Amino acid sequence: MQPYFFPYIGYFQLLQASEKFVFYDDVNFIKGGWINRNRILISGSARYITIPLSTPSSFSLIEHTKINRQLPWKKKIFAQITHAYAKSPHFAKVFNLVEETLSSEEESISQLAKNSITGVLNYLGIKKDINSSSRKYCNNHLKGQDRVLDICLQENATRYLNLPGGISLYEPEKFSTQGIALSFIDVNMTTYRQHSANFTPGLSIIDVLMHNEIDEVINMLL
Question: Each residue of 96-122: b (16+ CB within 10 Å) or e?
């Protein structure tokens, strides 16, 4: 999976279901996606928190896409999160997690997004075997499912898991001929109490952490 900025709970359900996880970070950056932004609930409405980028381009790789350090985006995000969650039961701990992540001096949005994910895993006490496609597999001459399949073969995988959005991207028979089963997890959008009359699913994991105990969050991942 591409590294996303504090992604939604389905991303972490995929992580929890995986024995090995690969950040797919040397593919083209997608504008308007989840690599540098996500949504939180502010005054009952889903609003974006965004990290501005320097000349983002769909012709650049995610790992080469730089953060725009000239804009005061940290202050804005901290203010948005405080406004949204100051009265939430786990505000102090989760705000500290976000603050630690954003206070790093990373130049690449790829690394900052990875840090947001591994930071959440550490907060939850979850240990996972995680690699990055840019650092290990040396197969970026391949494209699409051929490259994913090659990563699986290099890892001696017997099953490849993905989120439901990837169903149209892969052919099960191509994987099965290599002895690899192709599976897609069922994302569980468990409801919980938010600061809103109606539940809004699919928000950043920040929203989940603000309102739930660690053991409750882990149960949502199973």
Answer: ebbeebbeeebebbbbbbbbbbbbbbe
